Q: What sequence folds into this?
């Protein structure tokens, strides 16, 4: 039996369902979660939504976001659904010391990342060639049923738009696929204007000021552009982890820059976000450090040894060596 069919049957038989989005949740995961959730609610299911920490205020315009919960109850769920999800580490706050709970309950996993471990008791639909998880879910849903209304189409459009960086990180076949899906979603009534307004044109003043801090300490060496921010600075500016995206968007616009790397301190590690313009393969570079992604947008995480600035310089040195 095809995995899609198995997933459909598993979800139809379930009554009490939990859907998870990863930590530092983004538009793709939120869009994917609520697409699935709203469909399942229409089918009469009891659906709960969980993510480890509060999402960015950019998503406050979505009424459904009020149903998001930040503490997990470890209740008797029939099925657990994970979207945009490469491994238990993506929801560490819930899974740490609770792997047995997660292993025993049937799981449905839909994702576009490289996975970092095998799951027990799980149906996995994974396609690393998709630029967003929302695309996978949309393509999957076309095979399932015609329940996609305007609201659901808007959620999926948001997922596609945010993960593709407003259709700039995708390339070649990825672009054809993502544009085709976007057109289909617009025909289904996706509210493009509202997504553009709320996601791209409603940054807080603090968020833009935070990005100017990142831009101020940015450096350029040959065609490599890099910068960083600490965990403390996020708190100082009262901004969410994804606020640095605004700086990333600007960094890739610089002439002669071919590769942008932004180091973000997260507790005892540094998350490295890569953005490119085609010349270098961000994905291959990140895979070398245990990460993954796409040609023009990828990421990896390295341990922090003490001084953030020194760690970033050492990392940039390693990247330059690989590129030479
Ligand atoms: Mn994603």
A:
């Amino acid at each position: 039996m095809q995995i899609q069919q198995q997933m459909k049957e598993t979800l139809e038989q379930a009554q009490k369902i939990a859907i998870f989005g990863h930590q530092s949740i983004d538009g793709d995961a939120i869009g994917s979660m609520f697409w699935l959730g709203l469909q399942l609610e229409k089918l009469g299911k009891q659906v709960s939504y969980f993510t480890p920490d509060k999402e960015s205020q950019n998503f406050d315009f979505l009424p459904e976001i009020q149903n998001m919960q930040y503490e997990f109850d470890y209740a008797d769920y029939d099925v657990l659904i994970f979207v945009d999800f490469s491994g238990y580490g993506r929801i560490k706050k819930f899974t740490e010391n609770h792997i047995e709970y997660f292993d025993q309950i049937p799981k449905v996993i839909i994702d576009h990342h490289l996975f970092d471990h095998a799951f027990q008791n799980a149906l996995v639909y994974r396609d690393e060639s998709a630029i967003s998880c929302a695309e996978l879910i949309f393509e999957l849903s076309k095979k399932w049923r015609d329940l996609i209304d305007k609201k659901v189409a808007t959620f999926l459009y948001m997922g596609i738009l945010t993960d593709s960086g407003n259709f700039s990180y995708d390339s070649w076949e990825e672009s054809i696929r993502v544009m085709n899906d976007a057109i289909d979603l617009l025909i289904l009534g996706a509210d493009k204007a509202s997504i553009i307004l709320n996601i791209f044109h409603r940054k807080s003043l603090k968020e833009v000021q935070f990005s100017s801090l990142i831009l101020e300490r940015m450096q350029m060496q040959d065609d490599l552009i890099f910068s960083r921010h600490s965990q403390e600075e996020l708190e100082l500016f009262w901004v969410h982890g994804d606020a640095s995206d605004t700086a990333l968007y600007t960094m890739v616009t610089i002439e002669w820059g071919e590769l942008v790397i932004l180091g973000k301190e997260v507790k005892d590690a540094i998350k490295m976000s890569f953005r490119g313009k085609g010349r270098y393969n961000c994905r291959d570079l990140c895979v070398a450090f245990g990460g993954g992604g796409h040609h023009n947008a990828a990421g990896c995480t390295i341990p922090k040894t003490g001084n953030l600035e020194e760690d970033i310089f050492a990392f940039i040195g390693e990247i330059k060596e690989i590129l030479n």
